Amino acid sequence: MNQTYAIAGVSAVVLATVLVGALGLRISRTTSDFYVASRSVPPRLNAFAVSGEYLSAASFLGVAGLVLARGPDMLWFPIGYTAGFLVLLAFVAAPLRRSGAYTLPDFAEARLESRAVRRIASVLVVGVGWLYLLPQLRGAGLTLRLLTGAPSWSGGLVVATVVTAAVAAGGMRSITFVQAFQYWLKLTALLVPAVFLLLAWRADHTPAPSWDERPVFQRSTQVRADSTLTLGVHEPVRVTVTGTVDGQAMDGGPLTLDAGTHRIGPDTTLRFPPGARVPLPAEGGAHAVPSSWANPLSAGRAQHGLYSTYGVILATFLGTMGLPHVVVRFYTNPDGRAARRTTVAVLGLLGAFYLLIPLYGVLGRLYAPDLLLTGDTDAAVLVLPQRLIGGVGGDLLGALVAGGACAAFLSTVSGLTMSVAGVLAQDVLPTLGIRHFRLATLPAIAVPTAANAVVSDLPVADAVGLAFAVSASSFCPLLVLGIWWRGLTPPGAVAGLLLGGGSALTAVTVTIAGGARSGPLHTLLAWPAVWSVPVGFAAMVLISLTTRDRVPASAAATMARLHLPEAVTGRAGLPDTDPEPAV
User: Fold this and answer.
1) Phi, psi values for residue 389, rounded to 5°
2) Which residues, at least 6 apart from 441, have a Cβ–Cβ distance to it below 8 Å?
3) Alpha-carbon gap, residue 86 to 25, rounded angstroms
4) Could you tell me if 537 and 500 are in contact, meaning their C-beta atoms sit under 8 angstroms apart?
5) What is the spatial distance between Cα 378 and Cα 462, in angstroms, rounded to a whole number?
6) CA-to-CA distance for 332 and 96, rounded, in angstroms?
7) Could you give the CA distance from residue 299 to residue 292 in angstroms, rounded to a whole number?
8) Contact 411, 52 (CB under 8 A)
9) Which of 140, 449, 539, 560 has the most CB atoms around it within 10 Å of its CB?
């Protein structure tokens, strides 16, 4: 990839983000503008903004990387990401808007009249937000490393700096325009190159990828190992090597890699001939053959494939409604009807985007299989324009894709930082309005940025799946039962949040830290939604039934406000209480 073109593309996106954000900043005047854009964002604009922040690095880079590595089984991820909005539409969107809250903890306290529930919800919002931020920053680091050769941590630092300035300066009003603009930028950055990639694939006689055996190099391919690799070779292959293989130093000479295991030294370059099978890291040798639909998601999860599928489905279907950066956007709609219209529009916008992503995964399997060797499968979208088209055209398309990837990081990180900072400002720092919100943006982004330097080997889409699992296990029970069941009590909510959300958060923390790397225990911890979601619901229901006398006195009035149209209740949510100017 031409670094000059790519850096120009990324720089243009950053500049455009700043300019569009400045438009929102100019019309931000009150605290309500800052937190929820004065609850006046029309459905169409809000749908663009929701889609812009929801389509994160996991969507733009991660899903294509998973399809490349593990086959069409990974389509459960985009299906789940989109279908989650159906659940949100049916059960949550309009009632949540009518609650008049600013954040999920606000809703919890208003519904249950409990500070304890609010505090636990605040901790979980911050936990989910930070967990979701990790893969976004990792994707930013990967992109910048490919574009400039800079260290992986530097990309996350750049994104964190830009987002901190944008969020602290303009708040929700500014971010709304930025995220709406970035949705269309991301869609364009995938759609335009896809047309030329398909034409190049057709000109190459439309080869079909193999999902039942190791992929092959369609063309002569050079692979660089930046660190030591241990590769498993299934059949002898003659390569050209510059560097060290099995302790033998080579200077551009030919070498035959026999079947077996070979150790590739750091800073070693290997050139493979067309038709050669792709060697895979020895650690993944047992999983070299991707799964089929008869054994869903079993690639990399060979012993418990069906279980992991259900884990992905439950996490993505039910976790969307509790993602803090998604939920907060529905508070910006004028009323409940507008919130529903926003959700319907989002379903169409997401569907259009996700139709393109599998194409990049399939083409990556054909023309970038070396990413399996190095482990950089999340880079498939970034490298394909140069691999298939090349020349100035490939450089220009590569710059467009790089700009789209940058927009994915900026939009999602902006929304997450906004939601986490809002909770920190209200529940951790003394309430001093906008000044402390701006101060809260620093820890909101600094903690995951620091963690990103430590956790660097987790696939982007898998990491997002862990955040969805925590959200599904905690806020899904709280929102569904809080909105639809009058009998929910504060002790029941506390029990469900601690047992469901707390156990899921513990499980994914252990997974990210590297505990229980194999066996049934690893499977249970890595995909906890199968057991943690039922635990959360069961705990809330059972404890609430045993504490019926603790049902809040205002439960009936609150339920009426959540479900009756604003025209009947005569209100569009709780009034804004802090008139402090935002700027």
Assistant:
1) -110, -50
2) 164, 167, 168, 417, 421
3) 33
4) yes
5) 11
6) 11
7) 9
8) yes
9) 140
Lowest-confidence segment of 7-16, 257-266, 461-470 by average pLDDT: 461-470
Q: 415 near 172, Cβ under 8 Å?
A: no
DSSP assigned state of 548: G
- Of the candidates 289, 274, 165, 178, the one whose C-alpha atom is nearest the C-alpha of residue 221 is 274
Is the distance from CB of 492 to CB of 540 less than 8 angstroms? yes
- Distance between CA atoms of 378 and 258, rounded to whole angstroms? 29
Helices vs strands, H then E, count in the chain: 25, 7
Distance CA(374)–CA(229), nearest Å, equals 8
User: Where do the DSSP E strands lie in 267-414?
Assistant: 268-272, 280-281
Q: In sequence order, what DSSP letters do the residues of 237-286 get, joined into one string?
A: EEEEEEEEETTEEEEEEEEEE-SEEEEEPTTEEEEEPTTPBPPEEGGGGG
State in Å, rounded, how far the first CA of the chain is from the last one. 42
Q: Which of 332, 325, 408, 412 is nearest to 126 (CA)?
A: 325
| Residue 10 token pair | 């990324």
Q: What is the DSSP string of 477-490?
A: HHHHHHHH-TT--H
Q: How many residues does the chain have?
A: 583
Do 474 and 322 meet the contact criterion of CB atoms below 8 Å apart? yes
How many whole angstroms separate alpha carbon 190 and alpha carbon 219?
A: 24
The torsion defined by the Cα of 290, 1, 18 and 155, in degrees rounded to 10, comes to: 60
Cα(129)–Cα(447) distance, rounded to whole angstroms? 11
Q: What is the pTM of this model?
A: 0.84
Q: What is the C-alpha to C-alpha distance for residues 63 and 461, in angstroms, rounded to an integer?
A: 6
- pLDDT at position 353 is 94
Q: Determine contact, residues 109/115, Cβ cutoff 8 Å.
A: yes
Backbone angles phi, psi at 280, to 5 degrees: -115, 155
Distances, alpha carbon 234 to alpha carbons 71, 185, 238, 271, 278, in Å: 20, 42, 13, 17, 9
Q: Are 146 and 377 in contact (CB under 8 A)?
A: no
- pLDDT score, position 75: 87
Q: What is the pLDDT of residues 86-144, one digit of tens each?
A: 888 889 888 988 887 778 898 999 999 999 999 999 999 998 888 888 888 887 887 77
- pLDDT interval class at 451 (50, 70, 90): confident
Calculate the CA 331 to chain-centre distance.
Answer: 21
Q: Which residues contact 518 (CB under 8 A, 6 or more apart)?
A: none
Q: For residue 558, give Cα distances in angstroms to 43, 223, 417, 474, 481.
A: 25, 61, 29, 21, 13
Sign of the four-CA dihedral 149, 412, 63, 474: positive
Separation of alpha carbons 184 and 411, rounded Å: 12
Q: What pLDDT is recorded for position 144?
A: 79
Closest CA to 348 of 39, 74, 89: 89
Q: What are the CB-based long-range contacts (under 8 Å, 24+) for 430-437?
A: 433/31, 433/578, 433/580, 434/31, 434/34, 434/171, 434/580, 434/581, 434/582, 437/34, 437/35, 437/168, 437/171
Residues 6+ apart with CB under 8 A from 175: 21, 24, 49, 53, 166, 167, 414, 415, 418
